[in-house]
Structures are given as C-alpha cells and as structure tokens.
Amino acid sequence: MRPFHYTRPESLNHASQLTASSNAVPLAGGTNLVDLMKLQVEVPRKLVDLNRIGMETIAEAPDGGLTIGALASNTATAVHARVRSDYPLLSRAILSGATQQLRNKATTGGNLCQRTRCSYFTNIDQPCNKRQPGSGCGALGGVARLHAILGTSAQCIATYPGDMAVALAALDARVEITGHGSHRSVPVRAFHLLPGDRPERDNVLEAGEIITAVTLPPPVKGRQIYRKVRERSSYAFALVSVAAIVAMDSGRIARADLAFGGLAHKPWHDPRLADLLIGEQPSAALFDKAACLLLENARSHGENEFKIPLTRRTLAAVLAEATEIDL
Amino acid sequence: MTGQFTQDAPETECLLDSMRQDVIGKPLVRIDALAKATGTATYAAEYPVKDCLEGVLVTAPFARGRITGIDIDTCLACDGVVAVIDNEKLIARCAQGTAGEAPVQEVRKVAYWGQPFALVVAETFEQARDASKHLKITIQDDDLSDIPCDPQAVEPENQQYSSQGDLPHAMTEAPHSVDAKFTTAGHASAAMEPHAAIAQWDGQTLTVHASLQMLNYNISELADAVGLEENQVRIVSRFVGGGFGSKLGISAETVAASLAAMQLKRPVRVAMSRQQVFQCVMRRSETSQRMRLAAGKDGTLQGFGHEALVSNLPDEQFAEPVLQSSEFLYAGDNRLLTLDLARVHRMTAGSVRAPGEAVGMPTLEVAMDMLAEACSIDPVELRLKNIPDRHPMKGTPFSSHKLAECLQQGAEAFGWDSGLRKPRQRREGEWWIGTGMASAARVHNIAKAKARVTLNPDGTALVESDMTDLGTGTYTILGQIAGEMLGLDPSNVLVDLGDTRLPRGPGSGGSWGAASIASAVYVACKAIREKLTKYANVTEGELNLKDGGVEGGASFAQLLGDKELREEGHYEPGDIEDDYVAAGFGAYFAEVRVNAFTGETRVNRMTGAFGFGRVLNERTARSQCQGGMVWSIGAALTEALHFDPRDGHLVNCDLAEYHVPVNRDVPELEVIMVEERDPAASPIQAKGIGELGMCGGAAAIANAIYNACGARVRDFPITPDRVVACMPD
C-alpha cells in the first residue's frame, strides 16, 4: 500500500470536488478497493471517503419504482421488503455474490464499480492493459478459464465480476450520477463499457462524478430468475449467470428481459433476444435459436471455450423454468 | 528417570483397557476450544513483542534464471526502512518434512516464479510492504521458451518400479479389464493461518515464535540455515492454525526473520501474504495416471497396474507417493507399479494432506467402479472379494485390517442398494441423483517420540513435549492419556506443548502425531505407575487409580507426601515396522446431485466408515474424519492449482480463486468409527486418522456423478465444464 491522503467530506458537492482532481478515488465499502491497494494494483494519491454523505436510504420513487442509495449495503438491499416482493431477482443476485461479511460492507455504488477479478490484473508482475495501459494482456494466451467470450478486444478479455449489476441490467435500472454541479442518469445497460482500445476504463464515470443512487423502474409482471453457475456453491464468481424476467400470455412469451454475467466486460444485454422470443411459444428449438443469436459472435480463448456450451445450456434451463416447460 | 519402549512385537495387552478413570476415548471438548473461539489463543504473528520490526519477503517475478544485482539504495531511501536482508543464508525453498537440515539456500539462483530472495525490514508493516515494491533487481533470465512448465513435456526420471508376473498378458487374457487414464490437479494446503514468525536475538539465543508442525526437525533446519548450534535456538509454536504439510519444514519467513533479528539486534516479525503462501510453500504435485485392472468372470483380480507421473523442482527428492496404498490394498498376481518424476519449474512439491493416497486412491477407486460395472458386480462386493490376506508382493501380514467391516457397516448405515447399478435412473427436476462408493486406505506412520510427565502430590499432573497441536486436539488427548493412566480427571492434567525447550516429540505430520506422542506419554505414565506400586505396596495389576489417588484408598498427597514423580517416556517404532503392513482402512458412500443443464455437482450426503485402531477421543477423531471428507469434496469437485504454461507462475493464489469447499458445499457427514485395536501399530493400539478421511473419498463422489448422470469424468477436479463435456445427451 502506498501512502495516500484520506479525506471524509460531509457533502456530495465537496466529495465531487475532491474526486475531480487526478488520482483521487472515492471509497465506499472498500471491499474491493482496499484489497487492490494492498496489492498496489490501485495506488490512489487521495482517498475520498463517501461514508459521511448519507446516501444509504432505499426509498419509494414517485413513479412506483424504487431508489436505492449508493451507500445502501448489499445486505440492506437484498433484505428490503419491496426488493424481495417486487424485484426478487435483485435480491437473489446479491445474495449469490461474495459472503455475508462482504455483503454487509459492500455498497450499491461500490458494487457497480468493482473491478475485474482477472488474475493478470491483480498480479502487478504480469502484463495488463487495464492496470497499465500498453503493457499487454497476460490473459490472452494464458490461463483464461474465467474470461470473456463476448465483446472482447485484442487489448483485454476480462469480465465484469458482479452479480447485482446483471440483475439491474435485466431490470433496466438506471444509475444516478452527480458531478461538476449537474446530474445525469445512465441506464445500467450503458453504464459499463466494453474494453475496446481503452480497457483501463470500466464504466462511464468521469473524474469528479459520483454515483448517488440506482433507480428501479416500476415493477413488471413476470417470473424473475437469477441463475448463477459455479463449481463451488458460494463465494465464487460466476462461470456464467443469467438474470431473467419472463412473462407469458396465452402460452406465448410476452416479456423476456435477459442479462448475462461472466461473459463479458459488462453485464451483457442483447436486445435482439427479447425481439426473438416475444410472441413465440416456448420450445427447446426456440431457446436454442436464442442461444445461437446470443452467442453469434462469441469467441473463446483456450480454456474458457466451455462457456459457450455452458451458456447455451444455462439459458435453456432458465427459459424452461421461466416458461414452465419440460426439456 | 526414563521409561523406554521400542516396539519390536505386537502389544496385545494395553494398560489403557484396565484403567479405572474411564476417560480414554471419551468425546471431551478440546481444552483450547474456548480460547480459539474467543480469539485468545496466541498464534505465531500475534505475540506482543516490544520494539518489533516488520519484514516483508520479496519474491522473484520470473521462473528461472539468476538475479545478478539488487539495487538496495532506492528501497533503503523509502520511509521507515531499516534494512534489506539479502544474504546468502536466506532459503530459496521450504524444507521437506523430516529434512532436519537447511533446504536450498541459493536465493539468487531462481528456480520458480515467486521464489523469495530478500527481506525488506521497516518500522511498520505498511512501510515494509510498500518499500518491497521499490526493490529493483537486474536479472539474467533464462530462455523462457525452454522452461519446462508442463510435466508432460519433460523426459521423466523413474522413481519406483515394481513388477510381478505379466500384467499385459493378464490384461489380454482376462474376461474383464479396465484400462483408463486419469489426471489430478495440483493442490495447496491452504491452511487458515498464513506462515509467520517473530524472531528475537539476545546475542546468545535465537528465540522464534513460528507456525510450524515439527519442531523436533525444525530446530535443526533453522540452526543449520542461520549457522547456529541447536542449543542456541529455541522455537515456540503453541498454536498452529492448520498445516496440512505446508509447515512440516521451515519456510522462508522463519529464516528471514531470524537472520534479520540477528543482524539488526531487534525483534523482527515476518508474515507471508496469502499470495506468498500459495506461491512459495509446498504444493501437491499434479499427476497423470494410468490404471489397469484385469479380473476373472467373478470379479477376482488377476492383474493390477498403477502407473503415475508427478513433478518436482530439480534436486528435490520428494515424489508424490501415488502408489503407496496401491501396493497392498487389493489382490492380483500380475502387478505393475511405476512412478515417474518430471522436473519442472514450479514451487517445491512436497507433502500436502495425505501425500500419495490423496490422489492415488481416487483414481484406483474410480477404476474399481468401472471394473464393477464391466463385471456386473456390486462395487462393494467387488472390493470385498479382492481383499488380500497378505501384502500381495511382499507376503507380509497385515497388523490389523478392517476394510471389510468398514465396507459392510458403511453400506448399511448409508442404505446402499446392492442391486444392479445403471446410470441416469433418478431425476428430480433439473437434477440427476446418484450414489457412489469407494474404499479408503492410508499407510500408518509412526515416529520416535519423547514426553515428560510429572505427577504432583496435589493430584495434578504436567505433560511436556515440543509436540505441536495443529488444531487437531493433541493437548486434549494427552490429558486423557495421562488422566487415564494416573487416575486423574483430564482437567487436572496440564499439557504444555510447542516449545523446543521441552522433550522432543514426533511433530505433527503424516497422521502420526497422536499415536506417537500418546505412546510416549503412555510409556512415561507406565514408569510413574511402576514407582507408585512401591508407594502403595501393590503390584501393577492391583494398582487401581482413580480421581487423584488409589481407588477407594489413599490420595496422592497421602501416598507421596510432598514428593513429585517425574518420568520421561521414550517411544521408538522398532523392528515391527518391517514385519507387518500397518494401514488405516475405510469406506465412503456418497449421494450427489448433478444438474442436467449446467453440470454443477452438489453432495447431498456422505457416510464414511473408518478403522484406525483405538479411538483416543471420539469427538476429535470424528472431526478429523469429517475434515478429511471435506478435503475429499474439494479434491473431487473444486481444488486445482492453475499455472501459466508460459512463465510458470501460479495464477490462482488466494482463497477466492483456489476453491476449497465452503460450508454450503458440505452436507451432513456421517462418520462411523469401526471398533479396532491394532497391537502392532503402537503400544496404545492406535493408528493415524487425519489423512485417512481423504484417501479415496473423491472417488465416491466421482462414481456417484457417473451413477447420477452417466458422465465418467477421469480428470479431477470434476468441474461443471468437465461434467457437461462427458454427459451423454
């Protein structure tokens, strides 16, 4: 850990000003950032602790949705009565991640900003374009079992590791952002970035911008499922995960909001899937067609080749469960 | 005074059976349990030491070559840095178990990625850790393309070859045969407490609080490494937060802390980071194996072949003894056993929980399941049919053998269905359900041990040895042994362990700890009893001790006045080791569910039946068995070290990425302890337990996966992707 300045502002404006300077990093639960600082993967000069600002509340939104404060703990969100009744997908996704102790500390905003768990990123003696732009990608040609198959670039094949954001992407939630005296609202589906030529950027946040909340749209009808596939049943990142909200109408699919974890640098949402599925009768053939579309441009990197068939099979299982058909 | 016992013949009579206190075998709670649960048990790095400096190890970021220069100045200029220790006495590898001398010390000659080569010492830990990142080195990197990181790509050296009859011929002739190849991944011990040491030097004596398993050897290793006489070295390890082999020999932190303390004349603490623990302490070698089994129509084995390839660093003697129990577990006249060793540049391979059987037994037991299917015989029956009367090659008798009882009692408790077995018979929703079983076998190890016992006239006793307790319950069982022998409630027996100033114990390793040190305490207590017969004026047979004195008679105070009785017990294994095959046996039964879509496997329930001689404490013995079964689950489903094939670095080096089982992976584990006394194993008729629990358990799970969904996976761990790849559609 490098020596750093630590400040704990009392207001959002002040926090925003403080994080606007170069190499100033906001601190929320610290479950990811502090670990990375110990390894010197992150070496901020200034740490801006947001915990005095007060953004912990989970409140009803005027449109019937729900606003989850950026500093609400993952545990508080997962157990919240309205989350459990109207957005059970979110609750299940959160509870499938990390451990109870980590969820008690981790926050909504921090969780959205968590960094990849690529082991080449966390080992400072290995090349990584995300950690050190231009140094190369160690995972390409290395041990890439957990790496991305969609939306990769020659610069980076890392995955976004979280579960909560995958559920939020399926729910079409929005990230509320304040900075430089103004506010903007970004769909979760557009919050994270693909690596492209700038893998060091995980998301759209600019220096001086702070996440204040996540807003959930009014609840929709349909079955909500979060399926996380992993070799160990807890405290493991997803090999692949599927978040689904599926509604049926007269034997046909009426809604199919799907998002995927473990496949890409961001929670993966492909709007073509809903177009394909809506209006159709559920069947093995239909699910397979959906998987083909989803995986059309999938590219494996050695050991992670299994993710392609595994995604196909997991999607089929989730859609079968959601539409109540036997495969 | 000293009681001496060398075991050259079976001890059919054991005094423990005729004592009156009735505490031996009882499920006493560990006497240190509360201290551990409340955080008051002090581990190596936790001793409050005044004026203590903090050291951080610096490791090589390449796998093979030479460090030609170390730029110390930049590092010394960092805040708080006191020194950079880079002298020639630092150790480059950890010592193998029972080495008793310093391991390789040429730290500038790099043989694996992550090899420690220097120690940065500063006033605070954070300063040392930051400064360690500023230590610049110049290296002469050997051609990376030439680094043999893949054991398959290396011409191996043969380590073991034994042959009897003609296996290839038997394979051709036999009505049923199995010829299958397997792989098992490398494992890490992943003990909860990271390797750590605090060293203090007063100009005469080096005192080190360390986390080590075998102080009796570690003192020689450390003295040799730092250039002191043994009598100038004291090691203290009162509590050890798990070792599983990784703390058998000394590692870099203990030597580096010692050298720094001696040079700087201030105490120095060195704790490895979790990543360093994974990168520089012992690994279990990955293996590739071939099993050949040939059987007659009725399943009687006629041929038995087990060939294995393992790896280690150049110059290391240790080769994962994969064939250890294959030598004697099953019959079969035509036999071929070979073990090859490939030299690769990965960190030292050494003993990790149940070296040998941990990876040899699962493959053998999957092959047996395949043979049972080929012969259309119940897998339990197949094993019962093939238990040999004697060692199939040497002809030596077994000291005691409870495999049949374990198979039968385990099957009954589990509710094993011995009907015709076919995969894919039971489905619940998305899940295929299946059952599987396997035998367990683990050689019995025992070691020389000394202990001192003092009986005080106030009805208390003191047991002393440099033996360690890794959390297994050694403190507790020694109180039970002394209590039983001397007629004392165990709460009146103080057990003092983990200090080299005390008599040399056997150390903890190879599951020999309990039987060895308890035998030494037993021998010491026998000597005390002999003296007591004179005070009480009775014969040994008449000396009934209970609750602090002669049963129904004089208390120790009345007998002894103010005199204490002190005896050392010296136990030595003796010639009997060559006369018998001594081993623990057992059987596992598992029910699993396998997701038909994702290939995820979860264990629904598991039963283990084990025979390991006398049970010293039913609770701690059960915990050991359960711990082994948890390791079995990890070996079956999740645990694997991943190395980058290009530069040999270990990719998954923390507990988030190296997947030991979590609570949710472990169902209720049923343990049956089969009644047994092994008179040839030790004078107290006990054998080792800890490792037996993981010597084949992974196969019960693998076989259950096959029975559930029809996927016969031959590569461990059996991860979802491997299940999916083998699952019939």
UniProtKB/TrEMBL annotation, chain A:
It comes from the Bacteria. GO terms for molecular function: FAD binding; oxidoreductase activity. This is Xanthine dehydrogenase family protein subunit M. Gene3D superfamilies: 3.30.465.10, CO dehydrogenase flavoprotein, C-terminal domain, Uridine Diphospho-n-acetylenolpyruvylglucosamine Reductase, domain 2. Pfam families: CO_deh_flav_C, FAD_binding_5. Signal peptide: none annotated. It comes from Aurantiacibacter xanthus. Residues 1-221 form the FAD-binding PCMH-type domain.
From TrEMBL, chain B:
Gene3D superfamilies: Aldehyde oxidase/xanthine dehydrogenase, a/b hammerhead, Aldehyde oxidase/xanthine dehydrogenase, molybdopterin binding domain. SMART domains: Ald_Xan_dh_C. The lineage of its organism: Bacteria, Pseudomonadati, Pseudomonadota, Alphaproteobacteria, Sphingomonadales. InterPro entries: Ald_Oxase/Xan_DH_a/b (IPR000674), Ald_Oxase/Xan_DH_a/b_sf (IPR036856), Ald_Oxase/xanthine_DH-like (IPR016208), AldOxase/xan_DH_MoCoBD1 (IPR008274), AldOxase/xan_DH_MoCoBD2 (IPR046867), AldOxase/xan_DH_Mopterin-bd_sf (IPR037165). This is Xanthine dehydrogenase family protein molybdopterin-binding subunit. Residues 38-143 form the Aldehyde oxidase/xanthine dehydrogenase a/b hammerhead domain. GO terms for molecular function: iron ion binding; oxidoreductase activity.
